[in-house]
Amino acid sequence: MIARSEAGREVNRSLGYPIVVGAGLTGELRRWFADNGGCAAVLADAHPPVAARAAELARALGAPLVTFHLGEARKRLTTLEVVLERLHALGLDRRATVVGVGGGVASDLFGLAAALYMRGIGYVHVATSLVAMVDAAIGGKTGVNLSVGKNLAGGFRDPRAVFCDLDALWTLPRRALREGLAEVVKAGVIEGGAYFEMLETLAPHRFSRWPWFEVVTGAIGIKAAIVADDRDEAGVRELLNLGHTFAHGIEAASGWRVSHGAAVALGLRAAGLLALRTHRWTARDHVRLLGLLALLGMPLRTHQQPRAVYAAMRGDKKRRDGKLRFVLPRAIGDVEAGFAASPAMVLEVLERLRRPPEAIERP
Ligand SMILES: NC(=O)c1ccc[n+]([C@@H]2O[C@H](COP(=O)([O-])OP(=O)(O)OC[C@H]3O[C@@H](n4cnc5c(N)ncnc54)[C@H](O)[C@@H]3O)[C@@H](O)[C@H]2O)c1
Ligand SMILES: [Zn+2]
User: Fold this and answer.
1) Domains along the chain?
2) Whole-prediction pTM
3) Known catalytic residue: 358?
4) What is the rounded distance in angstroms from the CA atom of residue 273 to the CA atom of residue 239?
5) pLDDT digits (tens, 9 = 90+) for 309-353
6) How far from the centroid of its chain's Cα atoms is residue 256's Cα?
7) Active site residue 244
8) pLDDT, tens digit, for every residue of 270-296?
9) Is 136's C-beta closer than 6 angstroms to any atom of ligand 1?
């Protein structure tokens, strides 16, 4: 259970900026701005539960609040222009620092706006969704979608600080929570050990009883450690794409009806199948992974046509010299990047995704 009194704590500094996790956090933000120059404006997702939090924060910081209707469909250059023009209307100069409040769409879009406005002003993100806390707000990637694909325009730009408000998880819809959990499981497969075991222990319990501070902090630590070693995504950062080559194909082939989180769960099963097929990992580990995903209510099966998914995967921007490359697990806690699978192998795995999951009872 998240104790309401749980104060925010800086949990990570390996990326050069503080990442603070806790319930509430208005006091922490006020202190941070007192030490680091004031807050020029609070930008927020207009979705009421998020906007209400942002309004409270803006009052505490004595800063104007500007809300924007967001959502994936509005993560576009046109919205970016609206945000930039609002920053100008507020009279912000290049020494300003703004706060963005919201999920991953907010962190990608407001982060990019701050990077572009007058060639760059300070940015602080207050993450309100699990995806933003464990993934989007960590690592400095910002971006918007183009009509031809997701996240095709953007840049690397670190925020000055990130605050993960665990209280916000209470209003987050189940569906959005599950989106984040898929990334948490992915982090768990990369990290293995006590973190993966903690997820296995928690999985049968109600989310309201989960120790979210530990879950979020652990996933941040895993991502931050990888990103810190590879700021520009030239090497190890690729490991974070575990399950994602399949996931992007599944999402795209469904016309974005399959959510990213569901696609990542399917992608993790697919990566496991490819690893089994190439004798990289054991049936025991595979079944352990499927067991965790199943307990969390993640989909493990899709009826999509393998050829359609394969075609969409080939359109993936992460493809290099025409070959599809995969991050594959070798064990829970050991993953490798760069496996170039033959089309036949990929199609075989996609065909398996149409069938019931491999026996998921615990070994
Ligand atoms: N830059 C990166 O490294 C990175 C990594 C992962 C994901 N992303 C991006 O993040 C986005 C997905 O993030 P997301 O799932 O947070 O999407 P989102 O920001 O659209 O949030 C999902 C939904 O939850 C609502 N919401 C957010 N916080 C809430 C709260 N506390 N209570 C109630 N409702 C709340 C939002 O209004 C929205 O309707 C995608 O655009 C993806 O590309 C970026
Ligand atoms: Zn993802």
Assistant:
1) 9-172 (3.40.50.1970), 175-352 (1.20.1090.10)
2) 0.95
3) no
4) 17
5) 999 998 755 555 667 999 999 999 999 999 999 999 999 999 999
6) 17
7) yes
8) 999 999 999 999 999 999 999 999 999
9) yes
